[in-house]
Amino acid sequence: MKDGQRIRLRKLGGPGKNGGTPGDLYVTVQIAD
């Protein structure tokens, strides 16, 4: 993985409005020294 890389996890985000399907969850990687 690289610093600043963004990973998308489909349908693992919060629930959609009005009973819609869950959204996508995005995770941004930060490498600490």
TrEMBL record:
Q: Which SUPFAM superfamilies match?
A: HSP40/DnaJ peptide-binding domain
Q: Which InterPro entries match?
A: DnaJ_C, HSP40/DnaJ_pept-bd
Q: Which domain of life is it from?
A: Bacteria
Q: Where is this region: Disordered?
A: 1-23
Q: What Gene3D superfamilies is this protein classified in?
A: Urease metallochaperone UreE, N-terminal domain
Query: Which Pfam families does UniProt cross-reference here?
Result: DnaJ_C
Q: Which residues form the Chaperone DnaJ C-terminal domain?
A: 1-31
Which residues fall in a compositionally biased region of kind Gly residues? 13-22
Gene source species: Streptomyces tamarix
Q: What is this protein called?
A: DnaJ C-terminal domain-containing protein
